[in-house]
Write a structure and sequence with these properties.
The complex is a heterodimer of chains A (183) and B (417). Chain A has 183 residues and is mainly beta. Chain A is built from 1 helix and 11 strands. Among the domains of chain B are: 63 residues, no CATH class; 214 residues, no CATH class. Classes of the chains: A mainly beta (183), B alpha+beta (417). Chains A and B meet through loops of A and strand 1, strand 5 and strand 12 of B.
C-alpha cells in the first residue's frame, strides 16, 4: 500500500472518490502534451469502465488466458477491469503526439480514496492489453487491467492518474470509477 | 512548483534563480549560498528550516485545494466593486466592466449554448479549472465584449489553450481569427489591425487573459506565474483577423490551410514571445530579407521552434511576383534555407536541456545527430509547417513583421454559435 492519491474534489461523476463513476459511465479528462518551451497540445481522454470481474471469477479468467502468475497475496483478491480508453486531439494542429498508457496510471484505491493498493505482479498482460500500448489521436480501444484489493474491501475504486514524471503537464484531472456494481 | 498538482499544497519550497542548465558549477553554488529571489531569505536557511521544523496540521493537509466560486457577490458601489475585483486578483489591473446579472444575461444571447453547460477546462497555473458558459460570459463582460463575440470567446475557452503560462520565460500568445465571423463581428484585418483601434480585436485577446486568471487559475506572480520580466502582449495577445479579402490569388486563408472550409470560422493560437518589424533594406527581394528573420529564431526545447510571418498585402503580392505562388511555397523556402550546424544546435541551452537527453536515450533524429560532425547542417525548423504565413494590414506601406510564433492549433468557432 502506498499513500493517498490525489482527490481533486470535483463533484461531477468521476471527478472525485466521493463521486466515482458507475460501471458504464464515460468520464472525460484532458491530457496536455508538450513542454514549457513549445506550444501546448491539448488532448481529450474518454474512459469507460465496462466490466468488473472479482475474486474467484477473476482468477479463473486469468488462468483461462494462460497468464503465468501467482494466486493473490494473503488477504487479497484479484479484480479485472475491462476499460474502454479513447484519446483524441482537440482542434487541429501540427503532428499528433502518440500516447502511451503506462502501468500504474490505473490503480485500485480504497473506498475512502485514501489508500492505493499495489499492482499485482504478473509476467504478462491480459488480452486485449491496454497498459503499455500506444494510442494515436482519434483511437479508442478496450482492454483489461489487472488489480488486487483486500478481500474485505467491499467498494474499491479505480483511479486514472498522472505520472509523476509529467511535471505540470500530463493529465489535468484524475478520474475515479466504482470497481463494483451498484446493488 | 508542482506541489499543488501532486496533492501536497503545503509542501515547503524554496526558489533559486533560473536557468540552471548550462550554468557553471560556481554560479549554481552562488545560487544555493545566495537568497531566494521571491522572499529574499537565505536559500540554505530555508532548506534547513523546511526539513527540520515540525509539521503543522496545515502542512499535513493533502489533496487539491477546494476553491468554491460564488456565483454572485453582494451589491456595492461601482468604485468598491472595481476595488473588489482588482484587489482579489480577478483583473488585468485595468478597469473592467462589472459583470452584473443583467450584463451577463445579455452576453449569453450571443450563443445558443445554455448558461450552465460545462465548456471545458483551462490550466494557466498548476491546476485545471472547469467552467460553464455563464462563467465565460462573465469574463467576456469584464473585458468589454459584445454578445456577438461570444462564439469566438467560447471557442477560445473550449480549446483548453491558456493565454498565460507558468514558465519562468515570459511567453504570450498570438490569436488569429478566420472565416465569416471576422466580418460579422467587425474585426479589423486592415489598417492598424494590431493596434488598439477595434473593439473586437482589442477585447477578444483581453478575455483570453482574464479567463486564464479567473478560470485557469493562473497569473499570480511568484505563485502561478514565474515569467521573470513579463510580456506586454499578455494584455491582448496580438489578436487580429486575417485579411482574407486581400490574399493574393493562390494563397489560402490560414484556417483553410489547416483543413477548415472557407465558409467556416476558426480561431488559431500561436505560442511565442515577440514581434519585430522589417522592411526591405539592402536586399531588393523580400524573400531574402525574410530569411534574416527566420534565421534569428533560436532552436527550442524538443526541436519545436516556430516562425510566424505577418505580411501586409503589398508584401504578399510582391512575394508572389518573386516566385511564391502559395503560402506553402514560402514556408518551404524558409524551411530549406534556414540551416544551422549541429555545433550551433547543441549549444542552445534549451536544446541541451530537452534534445540532448533525448539523443542519449536513442530518440531520433537527435541520437544520429549526436554521432555526426559538428559542421553537419540540419534544418532549424522541424518541418515547413512550423513556418506560418498570415496576411494582415491595410496596404499603406510594404512592411511586415514576424516573430518566434509556433502554431498551436485551430478550433471551430461555429460549434459555439
Amino acid at each position: 500500500m502506498t499513500h493517498t492519491p490525489i482527490d481533486n474534489q470535483n463533484p461531477a461523476p468521476g471527478g472525485s472518490y466521493r463521486s466515482a463513476a458507475e460501471v458504464g459511465v464515460t468520464v472525460k479528462t484532458t491530457i496536455e502534451r508538450g513542454d514549457a518551451y513549445s506550444a501546448p497540445e491539448i488532448y481529450d481522454v474518454a474512459i469507460t469502465l465496462l466490466e468488473v470481474v472479482r475474486g474467484e471469477d477473476a482468477w479463473e479468467h486469468i488462468k483461462a488466458q494462460g497468464v503465468p502468475g501467482e494466486t493473490p497475496k494473503a488477504g487479497f483478491e484479484y479484480i479485472l477491469a475491462r476499460i474502454r480508453f479513447g484519446y483524441s486531439r482537440r482542434g487541429r494542429g501540427l503532428e499528433d503526439e502518440i500516447y502511451k498508457l503506462t502501468e500504474g496510471q490505473f490503480v485500485a484505491v480504497s473506498a475512502d480514496g485514501q489508500m492505493e493498493y499495489i499492482m499485482p505482479s504478473v509476467l504478462q498482460q491480459l488480452q486485449p492489453q491496454l497498459v503499455d500500448t500506444l494510442f494515436h489521436s482519434g483511437e479508442s480501444r478496450e482492454g483489461w487491467i489487472l488489480l488486487q484489493v483486500p478481500e474485505d474491501e467491499d467498494k474499491p475504486l479505480l483511479v486514472y492518474k498522472r505520472e509523476h514524471v509529467e511535471g505540470v503537464y500530463g493529465i489535468w484531472r484524475h478520474v475515479w470509477f466504482q470497481l463494483y456494481r451498484q446493488a | 512548483m508542482h506541489a499543488k498538482l501532486v496533492g501536497k499544497p503545503h509542501l515547503r519550497i524554496t526558489c533559486v534563480p533560473h536557468p540552471i542548465s548550462r550554468v557553471p558549477s560556481p554560479v549554481c553554488r552562488e545560487y544555493i549560498e545566495g537568497t531566494d529571489p521571491v522572499n529574499g531569505r537565505p536559500v540554505v536557511d530555508e532548506i534547513i528550516e523546511a526539513l527540520t521544523r515540525p509539521l503543522s496540521e496545515e502542512d499535513k493537509h493533502t489533496g487539491l485545494e477546494e476553491r468554491p466560486v460564488p456565483r454572485l457577490i453582494g451589491p456595492d458601489t461601482e468604485e468598491n466593486l472595481q476595488c473588489f475585483f482588482l484587489e482579489n486578483g480577478m483583473t488585468d489591473c485595468l478597469p473592467i466592466v462589472l459583470p452584473t446579472e443583467e450584463r451577463v444575461a445579455e452576453m449569453l444571447k450571443g450563443t445558443s449554448h445554455k448558461a450552465d453547460e460545462v465548456v471545458g477546462e483551462l490550466r494557466a497555473g498548476y491546476e485545471a479549472g472547469s467552467f460553464t458558459v455563464e462563467q465565460v460570459a462573465a469574463n467576456a463582460v469584464m473585458a468589454g465584449a459584445r454578445s456577438e463575440y461570444m462564439p469566438v470567446i467560447l471557442a477560445m475557452a473550449a480549446s483548453g489553450v491558456a493565454a498565460i503560462s507558468t514558465s519562468t520565460q515570459s511567453f504570450a500568445r498570438m490569436i488569429v481569427v478566420n472565416g465569416p465571423i471576422r466580418n460579422e463581428i467587425g474585426m479589423n484585418s486592415r489598417c492598424g489591425a494590431l493596434s488598439p483601434f477595434n473593439q473586437a480585436n482589442a477585447v477578444i485577446g483581453r478575455v483570453a487573459t482574464l479567463m486564464s486568471i479567473n478560470l485557469g487559475r493562473g497569473g499570480v506572480p511568484n505563485l502561478t506565474y514565474w515569467g521573470s520580466q513579463g510580456n506586454t502582449l499578455n494584455y491582448n495577445h496580438a489578436t487580429f483577423a486575417e485579411n482574407e479579402e486581400a490574399l493574393p490569388a493562390g494563397w489560402k486563408p490560414f484556417h483553410v490551410q489547416k483543413g477548415f472550409k472557407p465558409e467556416e470560422s476558426a480561431i488559431s493560437f500561436f505560442h511565442g514571445y515577440s514581434f519585430w518589424h522589417w522592411k526591405n533594406t539592402y536586399e531588393k527581394e523580400k524573400h531574402k530579407a525574410i530569411l534574416h528573420m527566420a534565421n534569428w529564431v533560436l532552436p527550442s526545447g524538443g526541436y519545436r521552434s516556430g516562425f510566424g510571418l505577418l505580411l501586409d498585402p503589398i508584401v504578399a503580392e510582391d512575394l508572389v511576383r518573386e516566385g511564391y505562388p502559395t503560402k506553402e511555397s514560402l514556408s518551404q523556402y524558409c524551411y530549406d534555407n534556414t540551416l544551422l550546424t549541429l555545433g550551433e544546435f547543441w549549444q542552445y541551452h534549451l536544446v541541451e536541456g530537452f534534445s540532448l537527453p533525448a539523443a542519449q536515450k536513442g530518440i531520433e533524429p537527435y541520437a544520429s545527430w549526436l554521432k555526426q560532425p559538428e559542421d553537419t547542417l540540419v534544418n532549424r525548423y522541424r518541418s515547413p509547417d512550423e513556418i506560418s504565413v498570415l496576411v494582415v494590414g491595410g496596404k499603406t506601406n510594404d512592411f511586415w513583421q514576424a516573430g518566434d510564433w509556433r502554431y498551436i492549433g485551430s478550433f471551430s468557432v461555429d460549434d459555439w454559435r
